[in-house]
Automatic annotation (TrEMBL):
Name this protein carries in UniProt: DMXL2 protein
Repeat positions for WD: 160-185
InterPro entries in the cross-refs: DmX-like/RAVE_component (IPR052208), WD40/YVTN_repeat-like_dom_sf (IPR015943), WD40_repeat_dom_sf (IPR036322), WD40_rpt (IPR001680)
Gene3D superfamilies per UniProt: YVTN repeat-like/Quinoprotein amine dehydrogenase
Coiled-coil residue spans: none
Source organism of the structure: Erithacus rubecula
Keyword GTP-binding: no
GO biological process, one term: vacuolar acidification
Entry keyword 4Fe-4S: no
SUPFAM superfamilies, alphabetized: WD40 repeat-like
Amino acid sequence: LTGAQDGSVRMFEWTRPQQLVCFQQAGNARVTRMYFNAQGNKCGVADGEGFLSIWQVNQTTSNPKPYLSWQCHSKTTSDFAFITSSSLVATSGQSNDNRNVCLWDTLVSSSNSLIHAFTCHDHGATVLQYAPKHQLLISGGRKGYICIFDIRQRQTLFTFQAHESAVKALALDPSEDYFVTGSAE
């Protein structure tokens, strides 16, 4: 799966030189992040205008429409994570009201899909990591802060400054004992 600054999203197969599917043509907002869900049957794409779009992967048409597309953040959606069976999605980004980490239910109408919004990261959340064993979300922000959220209780557990500049990467070890952060510095 490839995404570009021009907004195009294409899927390739290792043994074929041509694309299998073009999910999105050039001329859209820049792609900020994209992932497959754990089952491999859906892919999601976040963009620089605050949208998250999700497609079924097993498309037979060459230019399919997303089955779900909505604006998660008013400025940009920088990262996201599929939670559990992919019906729950967490997003990070930048919104005018500082609700920069959000939980969404993809099975309800778009007007009711926001489950919870965390007010955090004054200048926007840049990265997001889901820890399924502990049911935690870890986010990094533009000012170097890390926030840890309990998604069952829907509350912020910890906030601390890890870096002097924007957090650009988060990684979680498989046993969920440690996480590592990387910054712009």
